Amino acid sequence: MKLRLAIVVTLLLLLSSGTRAQESIDKTIERLKTEITRREAIAQEPTTPEEQKASNRLNLEKARAALVDAVQAKIAALQKYLKTLGDSITPEERDAVSKGLDQLSTDANAARNGTDGASNDPPQSPTDKKNANKTVDKTTGTETITTTTSKLKLARPPFESSTALSEAEVIARLDQPAKDEVKLKATVKIDKDEVGTESFSIPKGQLQQTVVVPLRHGTNNITVEGVDDPSLNDKISIESTANDDDRKTAFTRAIFGVDQSAAASAKPEQKLFLEFNLTAPLFGKKDSPIKAPVWLWLNPRITSLPKQLTGSVAEFSTAANFSAPFTSGKVNDIVQGFEFLGGLEVKTSPLTEPIASGFGGPTKVRFGLSLVFAAGMSTPFGEQQIGPQFFKVNDSIVAAFPGAKDKDFIAFVSADRNRFFRQYYGGLRLKSYYVKNNSEELENIFPGIIDVTFGQNENVTGGTLHGGIARIDGIYPLPFIRGKYQGSIYVFGSVLMKLSKPKLTDPIILQPPDKAPDFPAKNVFSQQVPPRDADHYRIGVGVDLMRLLKNQ
Q1: Which stretch of DSSP H or E encloses residue 249?
Q2: What count of other Cβ atoms lies within 10 Å of the Cβ of residue 291?
Q3: C-alpha of 91 from chain center
Q4: Helix (H) or strand (E) holding 358
Q5: CATH number, domain at 213?
Q6: Shortest CA distance to 346 belongs to which of 370, 316, 378?
Q7: pLDDT tens-digit profile of 53-103?
Q8: CA-CA distance, 20 to 4, in Å (whole number)?
Q9: What tens digit of pLDDT does each residue of 344-403 get?
Q10: Residue 143 belongs to some domain of the structure
Q11: Which structural domain, as residue segments, surrounds residue 208?
Q12: What is the pTM of this model?
């Protein structure tokens, strides 16, 4: 009971102190307005001695400055009142506050102009009237024309001219409360290169608004100007010493996940995999790598043994869930397949204009088309090395392997290899660059890539380089993952297709023996496992560990 009473008393004291403070501001405004009116009358009185006029003029300016400060304090109090109530405010309360802000704006103009709200400016020219703001009284239909007298000033908290960050808060401040919403646009440039733009506005009745602008390493020249009134503008410069770490991480990706792959007419297999994508711009500006005409890229990949896995994309959101299958197995069970590709991409056309990326906020996407050249090697896709596999000889086996005729069993043995399988391609690459705002500064998201290439691959054409192969690859970040983890989860797919007619063969029926026969033996025919000679596809989902671990 005592606790409740103490809370009630405290609230009453706070309410009464706030009321007294409000009454004090109101009384101060009325007192200053009365004083200004009297002193303006003295200034207009011709019989007032010059010495007293000079003293009166000095005190009049002080009273006007004090009135402006008091009015701004009252405006701040009303704005806090509106913000605190939020959606709970009633229409009557909002109208009352709006009228109060209008009156305070009139009082501030009167103090600055030296009159009771009337301007001392000369009569308007036709051009002035054209650029004036029109206000229509909805009750009487009367139209009032007033010129814009506001001035804009920029400041950056804490009013420093340099930073080590890649973005900065800039405050756009008017010298009087906005009578209507003031639409503004901030533009950031380094020399003639545009870093980015931001559109924002100062709401009606407020004096200032904060906008976050992107920065790049170097001297960033920031200009803010009115959308409807270009004469409302100001400029500042901010020196950024931000390093290029964020941009560099956009050139490196480490995907850890699960894929499903299969050759034509084969059972699909699920595999854990770890894939790296390393890219570097060549011959471009350090502060604008997106303009580089040539890129070097490397793509090594490690796959694990086929495993039947279950789970959802949500379970891939932590590094622990991804690393468990690797850390719980033996090393020789994991490194079952390896593939490496590398090459160059040469830009063939300018990038498109920025458009919405799906990530929301300031993240945009720009597309570029390039010629791509690749070469590399791979180990076979398939099971790890095991011993001979025995089956009974039947008519289907004899038809496929005539040497098994008059034998009881056939033993399939793996062939030994002294080289990796080679591959090379050439074609087109469509690349999606994720940028900040409408600038050329890359977001910390690895680009999405679609490749359409043609070449040869020994792993698809039976162990030799012959015929032609069409290879289609694609990997893109999921746009519905936003916030600090945006660009962390990727979907991908690829297909390798021989450029020849499909070949249809009779199936081979394999019947395992009751027990393994002696080997080698006269009744056992030894047959090397034929190399893979079929189309191949691969699809999957994975997490970019570079992004995931950086945001832990």
Answers
A1: helix 245-249
A2: 15
A3: 39
A4: none
A5: 2.60.40.10
A6: 370
A7: 888 888 888 888 788 778 777 777 777 776 677 667 777 777 777 677 667
A8: 24
A9: 999 998 888 888 888 877 788 899 999 999 999 987 655 555 678 889 899 888 888 888
A10: no
A11: 152-240
A12: 0.50
